[in-house]
């Protein structure tokens, strides 16, 4: 007797569960995550306290939470345009890097400027840099039908090498003891912080504004409607007369610009100069944030806070539990795994025959 | 004659529907027994239970008066029950003989199988070359392969699910002759159909099903299509009769010398198609599926910027290079064959599905913002005017039955005030009530001066509503025939590719 596991599409899968499944995924992550701590001979409850509670038990922690959540939210909001359109832009990390190079480049070019226009110009160029990098996979996709997952991902590494070239080459700080980093940006090119002594910066406002605009676009506008139709059925989108190629361009440009913006905020905010490791994989982690937030603008804000917490928790865990900070990535991976799992089981019925 | 199959109190339910409700009747040996009913009446479920494909919730089946427990199609085959499905399961790239041997339960050599198949083919008049690949066969020949494959298992009972839906009139009469000969040689045939005349011509007995229940099992001897239709539906169906002796004058839509030269082996190339449509005229494009209907519709809709030569002219304007959006703005409306996923998105609400086809209309927009209030009002109008059975416009399109959804889609397109309406398979697979309603609506629309093109493989439907009919065969379009004094033999010849 051969037993086969078979999957059958549920005709009537639940919308409520669709929005609840992130919570289920988080619960499952905590449950299975506790085994990781057990294996490491640590008390799960104590470990979770250090991982998820202690990082945000003071104002500094809270500020750090928003410092991490801001780029994640901005990138994920941008990515949601692509994902809604069924276009898988995996290269936000590269677009972020390009935004940092373009915007940061402006900051270095005018490094003795005190003008109030310097920062807005850097922000603008950050967005342009990210958008520029994102149009490359869009052109390849629409002209040659190349797979955007591959091209956008590969371009990420190209962007990282370009940044590498600049910080060890032309933009290397002459007074930097030969280290691969640029000069610091002038004060006029630094992102204002919200509270003295804390690192949380005005990028938070940008995230909220982008969230609000995205909400309006998705729910009230023709463009949002086109994205929804084209994501659900490309044939219906053709029937309606929507130009799919244009939509691919627009969504890539939007998500690239958002990623570029986030990159610029990182370098002109907490970091203050250009160097090799400007992002702890925000561009990739934002993919998880976008899906965990159900591609819903408000959901994305919430999930960005949760995922930001795993970054902080991992740092604290390294400090206090003496375990590698990569545990944070393990938790991010677990969340994504369980989210995909719950989504699948919501959509399909499983039976063994 | 004794009963070969006895259904006893068969009950089968799916979430939300009862497919078979206390079904009991007998099938006599060596007879042709039809099961008649609308789509969704439960006839397919019942034969799938007999074939072991579906398990009943309760009830028994007796074969030759013995209780039979049929758990799987292979048990059914061992009991001598075989089935020819509506959708064929053949491997395109393999030859006929290779496909036949794949269906065998017993081990047999290819040469022996070929001998055996040849005997069957010769005896019953199947015209098959055992060495040709399936991909080169017509739909009718593919069906022959399926039938021969079943006959190789020496069945006692052969189930045929809507076997005529894909055939030309000529092929249908051939098939009926074969079936009658098979029965003479001892076979019992269970024949599923919703076509009344066919059943009267072919079968000895008929079991009529409605909403999962058996209405009655009768001999077809004293029945005519009207009485049988009344029994199937429980009410009389209005026949939309087109008035066809009108002199149309104003030309509205022309296709001139339309050809395609695609190298894709899975598409049919269109060959010098000419079509001339006047104001208020309904023009039918008949033909068996897969003769270029899909390609023609894609060009008319301008999906994927399909490449072609020739001209498409709407009201003296060449629309060759106009996008779908621009064509819609010129008041050309479309209803495609694929209801869910193309003409409507199942995951979206009815209101949103209104806007799907109306985004070119300024009254539903304020700049780039959508005016959902107006759309909801419009959706409500469509629902009311076209008798769409739904609690509200917020219901997802995927929840509607085929007939209701089609009424909604056609209603939507009609209420956009088109001058030209292009419909593909408008009544395919929907209940008879909705079908009659849609036909009536189409006829009334043409009387208001709207020109309509219907692409359909349902010849009866075209004869009922159209003024003129042409046949599409392997990418070529025949000259039009006037429906008023139509020569059915000629039409049949056209469908087989014998143009004048």
CATH topology of the largest domain in chain B: Rossmann fold
CATH hierarchy: architecture of the largest domain in chain B: 3-Layer(aba) Sandwich
Tell how many strands the DSSP assignment of chain B holds. 23
Query: Total number of helical segments of chain A?
Result: 13
What is the helix fraction of residues of chain A, given as a range? 55-70%
Into which percentage range does the β-strand content of chain B fall? 15-25%
The overall number of domains of chain B is 2
The helix tally of chain B amounts to 16
Q: Would you list the SSEs of chain A in sequence order as H and E?
A: EHHHHHHHHHHHHHE
Major β-sheet strand ordering of chain A: 1-2
The count of β-strands of chain A is 2
Q: Which key phrases capture this entry?
A:
A: 353 residues, mainly alpha, globular, B: 500 residues, alpha/beta, Rossmann fold, seven-stranded mixed beta sheet
Give an overview in words.
The complex is a heterodimer of chains A (353) and B (500). Chain A contains 13 helices and two strands, in the order βαααααααααααααβ. Chain A has a two-stranded antiparallel sheet with strand order 1-2. Chain A is globular. Chain A starts with a strand and ends with a strand. Chain A has 353 residues and is an all-alpha fold. With 500 residues, chain B is α/β, with parallel strands linked by helices. In chain B, strands 13, 16, 19, 20, 21, 22 and 23 form a seven-stranded mixed beta sheet that branches. A six-stranded mixed beta sheet of chain B has the order 6-7-8-3-9-10, sandwiched between helices. In chain B, strand 14 and strand 15 (317-318) form a beta hairpin. Chain B is globular. At the A-B interface, helix 8 and helix 9 of A face helix 10, helix 11 and strand 18 of B.
């Amino acid at each position: 007797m051969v037993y086969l596991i078979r999957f059958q599409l549920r005709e009537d899968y639940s919308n409520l569960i669709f929005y609840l499944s992130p919570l289920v995924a988080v619960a499952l992550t905590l449950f299975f995550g506790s085994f990781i701590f057990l294996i490491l001979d640590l008390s799960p409850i104590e470990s979770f306290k250090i991982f998820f509670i202690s990082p945000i038990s003071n104002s500094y922690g809270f500020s750090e939470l928003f410092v991490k959540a801001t780029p994640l939210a901005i990138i994920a909001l941008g990515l949601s345009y692509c994902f809604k359109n069924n276009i898988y832009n995996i290269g936000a990390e590269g677009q972020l890097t390009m935004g940092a190079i373009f915007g940061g480049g402006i900051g270095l070019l005018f490094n003795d400027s005190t003008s109030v226009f310097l920062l807005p110009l850097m922000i603008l160029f950050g967005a342009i840099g990210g958008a520029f990098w994102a149009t490359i996979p869009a052109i390849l996709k629409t002209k040659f039908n190349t797979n955007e997952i591959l091209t956008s991902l590969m371009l990420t590494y190209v962007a990282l090498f370009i940044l590498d070239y600049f910080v060890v080459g032309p933009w290397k700080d002459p007074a930097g003891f030969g280290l691969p980093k640029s000069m610091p940006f002038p004060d006029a090119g630094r992102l204002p912080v919200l509270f003295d002594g804390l690192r949380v910066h005005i990028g938070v406002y940008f995230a909220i504004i982008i969230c609000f605009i995205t909400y309006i676009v998705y729910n009230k506008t023709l463009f949002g409607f086109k994205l929804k139709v084209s994501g659900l059925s490309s044939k219906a989108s053709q029937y309606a007369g929507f130009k799919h190629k244009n939509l691919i361009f627009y969504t890539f440009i939007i998500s690239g610009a958002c990623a570029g913006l986030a990159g610029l905020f990182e370098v002109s905010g907490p970091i203050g100069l250009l160097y090799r490791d400007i992002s702890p994989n925000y561009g990739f982690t934002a993919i998880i944030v976008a899906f965990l937030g159900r591609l819903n603008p408000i959901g994305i804000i919430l999930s960005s806070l949760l995922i930001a917490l795993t970054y902080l928790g991992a740092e604290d865990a390294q400090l206090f539990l003496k375990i590698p900070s990569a545990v944070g990535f393990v938790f991010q991976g677990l969340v994504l795994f369980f989210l995909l799992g719950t989504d699948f089981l919501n959509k399909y019925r499983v039976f063994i025959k | 004659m004794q009963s070969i199959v006895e259904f006893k109190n068969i009950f089968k339910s799916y979430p939300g529907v009862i497919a078979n409700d206390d079904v009991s009747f007998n099938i006599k040996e060596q007879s042709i027994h039809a099961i008649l009913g609308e789509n969704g009446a439960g006839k397919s479920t019942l034969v799938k239970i007999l074939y072991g494909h579906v398990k009943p919730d309760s009830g028994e089946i007796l074969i030759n008066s013995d209780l039979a427990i049929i758990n799987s199609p292979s048990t059914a085959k061992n009991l001598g029950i075989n089935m020819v499905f509506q959708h064929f399961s053949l491997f395109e790239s393999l030859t006929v003989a290779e496909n036949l041997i794949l269906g065998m339960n017993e081990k047999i050599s290819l040469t022996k199988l070929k001998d055996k198949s040849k005997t069957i083919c010769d005896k019953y008049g199947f015209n098959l070359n055992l060495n040709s690949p399936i991909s080169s066969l017509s739909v009718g020949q593919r069906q022959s392969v399926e039938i021969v494959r079943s006959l190789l298992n020496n069945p006692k009972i052969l189930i045929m699910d809507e076997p005529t839906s894909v055939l030309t009139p000529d092929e249908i009469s051939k098939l009926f002759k074969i079936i009658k000969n098979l029965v003479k040689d001892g076979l019992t045939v269970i024949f599923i159909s919703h076509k009344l005349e066919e059943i009267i011509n072919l079968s000895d007995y008929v079991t009529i099903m409605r909403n999962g229940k058996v209405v009655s099992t009768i001999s077809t001897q004293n029945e005519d299509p009207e009485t049988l239709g009344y029994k199937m539906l429980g009410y009389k169906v209005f026949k939309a009769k087109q008035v066809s002796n009108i002199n149309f004058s104003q030309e509205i839509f022309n296709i001139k010398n339309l050809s395609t030269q695609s190298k894709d082996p899975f598409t049919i190339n269109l060959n010098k198609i000419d079509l001339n449509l006047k104001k208020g005229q309904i023009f039918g494009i008949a033909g068996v599926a897969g003769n270029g209907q899909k390609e023609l519709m894609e060009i008319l809709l301008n999906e994927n910027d399909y490449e072609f030569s020739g001209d498409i002219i709407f009201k003296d304007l060449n629309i060759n290079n106009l996008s779908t959006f621009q064509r819609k703005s010129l008041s050309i409306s479309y209803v495609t064959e694929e209801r869910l996923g193309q003409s409507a998105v199942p995951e979206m609400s009815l209101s949103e599905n209104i806007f799907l086809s109306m985004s070119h209309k300024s009254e539903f927009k304020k700049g780039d913002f959508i005016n959902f209030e107006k759309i909801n009002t419009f959706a409500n109008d469509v629902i009311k005017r076209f008798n769409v059975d739904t609690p509200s416009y917020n219901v997802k399109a995927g929840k509607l039955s085929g007939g209701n959804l089609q009424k909604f889609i056609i209603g939507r397109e009609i209420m956009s005030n088109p001058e030209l309406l292009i419909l593909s398979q408008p009544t395919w697979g929907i209940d008879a009530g909705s079908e009659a309603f849609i036909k009536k609506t189409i006829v009334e629309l043409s009387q208001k001066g709207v020109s309509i093109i219907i692409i359909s493989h349902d010849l009866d439907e075209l004869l009922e509503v159209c003024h003129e009919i042409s046949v599409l065969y392997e990418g070529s379009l025949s000259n039009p025939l006037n429906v008023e004094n139509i020569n059915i033999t000629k039409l049949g010849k056209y469908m087989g590719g014998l143009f004048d």
